[in-house]
Specification:
Layout (H helix, E strand, L loop, with lengths): L5 H15 L5 H40 L7 E2 L5 E2 L9 H19 L1 H11 L1 H9 L7
Antiparallel strand pairs: 1-2
Helix pairs in contact: 1-2, 1-3, 2-3, 2-4, 3-4, 4-5
Length: 138
Amino acid sequence: MRGITPSILVRRLLEYEASQNNDQGGLAGASEHVSRKLSSHLSKIIGREGCRTLFMRAAKLTTREYPSFGSVEIAQDSSLSRYQDNPQADSKSAAAFLEHIFNLLITFIGEDLTLQVVGAVWPELSQSAADSSETELL
Protein backbone atom coordinates (compact mmCIF):
# COMPACT_ATOMS: atom_id res chain seq x y z
CA MET A 1 0.00 0.00 0.00
CA ARG A 2 1.78 3.13 -1.13
CA GLY A 3 4.48 2.73 1.47
CA ILE A 4 2.03 1.94 4.26
CA THR A 5 0.93 -1.56 5.17
CA PRO A 6 -2.42 -2.37 6.74
CA SER A 7 -0.64 -3.10 10.04
CA ILE A 8 1.01 0.36 10.05
CA LEU A 9 -2.29 1.97 9.08
CA VAL A 10 -4.08 0.19 11.92
CA ARG A 11 -1.38 1.16 14.42
CA ARG A 12 -1.65 4.82 13.41
CA LEU A 13 -5.44 4.78 13.55
CA LEU A 14 -5.41 3.17 17.00
CA GLU A 15 -2.83 5.65 18.28
CA TYR A 16 -4.83 8.54 16.86
CA GLU A 17 -8.14 7.38 18.35
CA ALA A 18 -6.52 6.67 21.72
CA SER A 19 -5.05 10.19 21.79
CA GLN A 20 -8.36 11.78 20.74
CA ASN A 21 -10.19 10.01 23.54
CA ASN A 22 -7.50 10.63 26.18
CA ASP A 23 -6.72 6.91 26.08
CA GLN A 24 -10.01 6.11 27.86
CA GLY A 25 -10.70 2.44 27.37
CA GLY A 26 -7.16 1.83 26.16
CA LEU A 27 -6.64 -0.08 22.96
CA ALA A 28 -9.99 -1.82 23.27
CA GLY A 29 -11.72 1.56 23.34
CA ALA A 30 -9.63 2.87 20.44
CA SER A 31 -10.42 -0.25 18.44
CA GLU A 32 -14.12 0.25 19.03
CA HIS A 33 -13.84 3.90 17.94
CA VAL A 34 -12.03 2.91 14.73
CA SER A 35 -14.51 0.17 13.89
CA ARG A 36 -17.52 2.37 14.72
CA LYS A 37 -16.29 5.27 12.55
CA LEU A 38 -15.37 2.93 9.72
CA SER A 39 -18.69 1.07 9.86
CA SER A 40 -20.63 4.33 9.89
CA HIS A 41 -18.94 5.43 6.68
CA LEU A 42 -18.93 2.04 4.97
CA SER A 43 -22.63 1.52 5.71
CA LYS A 44 -23.39 4.50 3.52
CA ILE A 45 -21.50 2.85 0.66
CA ILE A 46 -22.23 -0.88 0.97
CA GLY A 47 -25.24 -0.83 3.29
CA ARG A 48 -25.58 -1.88 6.89
CA GLU A 49 -25.79 -5.57 6.09
CA GLY A 50 -22.81 -5.41 3.72
CA CYS A 51 -20.74 -3.71 6.38
CA ARG A 52 -21.83 -6.19 9.04
CA THR A 53 -20.95 -9.08 6.73
CA LEU A 54 -17.48 -7.60 6.13
CA PHE A 55 -16.94 -7.18 9.88
CA MET A 56 -18.22 -10.69 10.62
CA ARG A 57 -15.77 -12.15 8.10
CA ALA A 58 -12.92 -10.16 9.64
CA ALA A 59 -13.98 -11.40 13.09
CA LYS A 60 -13.99 -15.00 11.84
CA LEU A 61 -10.47 -14.59 10.43
CA THR A 62 -9.32 -12.99 13.69
CA THR A 63 -10.78 -15.85 15.74
CA ARG A 64 -8.61 -18.30 13.80
CA GLU A 65 -5.53 -16.49 15.10
CA TYR A 66 -6.93 -15.45 18.50
CA PRO A 67 -9.60 -17.92 19.68
CA SER A 68 -10.61 -15.63 22.57
CA PHE A 69 -11.83 -13.11 20.00
CA GLY A 70 -14.67 -15.54 19.27
CA SER A 71 -16.62 -14.22 22.26
CA VAL A 72 -16.78 -10.78 20.65
CA GLU A 73 -20.02 -10.14 18.81
CA ILE A 74 -20.69 -7.93 15.81
CA ALA A 75 -23.87 -5.98 16.54
CA GLN A 76 -26.48 -5.09 13.91
CA ASP A 77 -24.83 -1.69 13.45
CA SER A 78 -21.44 -3.44 12.96
CA SER A 79 -20.09 -2.22 16.28
CA LEU A 80 -18.12 -4.59 18.46
CA SER A 81 -20.16 -5.75 21.36
CA ARG A 82 -18.72 -7.27 24.52
CA TYR A 83 -15.17 -6.44 23.40
CA GLN A 84 -14.20 -4.29 26.37
CA ASP A 85 -15.87 -6.81 28.70
CA ASN A 86 -13.65 -9.58 27.37
CA PRO A 87 -10.56 -9.80 29.60
CA GLN A 88 -8.85 -12.08 27.08
CA ALA A 89 -9.26 -9.69 24.17
CA ASP A 90 -5.94 -7.96 23.82
CA SER A 91 -4.25 -5.38 21.65
CA LYS A 92 -3.01 -8.00 19.20
CA SER A 93 -6.48 -9.36 18.51
CA ALA A 94 -7.91 -5.83 18.16
CA ALA A 95 -5.22 -4.89 15.67
CA ALA A 96 -5.63 -8.20 13.80
CA PHE A 97 -9.39 -7.61 13.48
CA LEU A 98 -8.86 -4.16 11.97
CA GLU A 99 -6.08 -5.43 9.70
CA HIS A 100 -8.42 -8.11 8.39
CA ILE A 101 -11.04 -5.47 7.64
CA PHE A 102 -8.55 -3.40 5.65
CA ASN A 103 -7.15 -6.46 3.85
CA LEU A 104 -10.68 -7.52 2.87
CA LEU A 105 -11.46 -4.01 1.65
CA ILE A 106 -8.29 -3.98 -0.44
CA THR A 107 -9.28 -7.34 -1.92
CA PHE A 108 -12.83 -6.21 -2.74
CA ILE A 109 -12.44 -2.58 -3.80
CA GLY A 110 -8.71 -2.11 -4.26
CA GLU A 111 -6.04 -0.12 -2.51
CA ASP A 112 -6.91 3.29 -3.93
CA LEU A 113 -10.57 3.15 -2.91
CA THR A 114 -9.67 1.74 0.50
CA LEU A 115 -7.33 4.67 1.08
CA GLN A 116 -10.08 7.06 -0.06
CA VAL A 117 -12.42 5.57 2.51
CA VAL A 118 -9.82 5.94 5.25
CA GLY A 119 -9.10 9.51 4.14
CA ALA A 120 -12.81 10.34 4.21
CA VAL A 121 -13.21 9.00 7.74
CA TRP A 122 -9.96 10.44 9.12
CA PRO A 123 -9.13 13.51 6.99
CA GLU A 124 -7.14 15.04 9.85
CA LEU A 125 -4.60 12.21 9.59
CA SER A 126 -3.98 12.96 5.93
CA GLN A 127 -3.68 16.66 6.71
CA SER A 128 -1.35 16.18 9.67
CA ALA A 129 0.95 13.97 7.58
CA ALA A 130 1.03 16.61 4.84
CA ASP A 131 1.64 19.46 7.32
CA SER A 132 4.57 17.73 8.94
CA SER A 133 5.96 16.60 5.59
CA GLU A 134 6.01 13.00 6.81
CA THR A 135 5.84 10.08 4.48
CA GLU A 136 2.40 9.90 2.97
CA LEU A 137 0.05 8.43 5.53
CA LEU A 138 -2.87 7.72 3.26
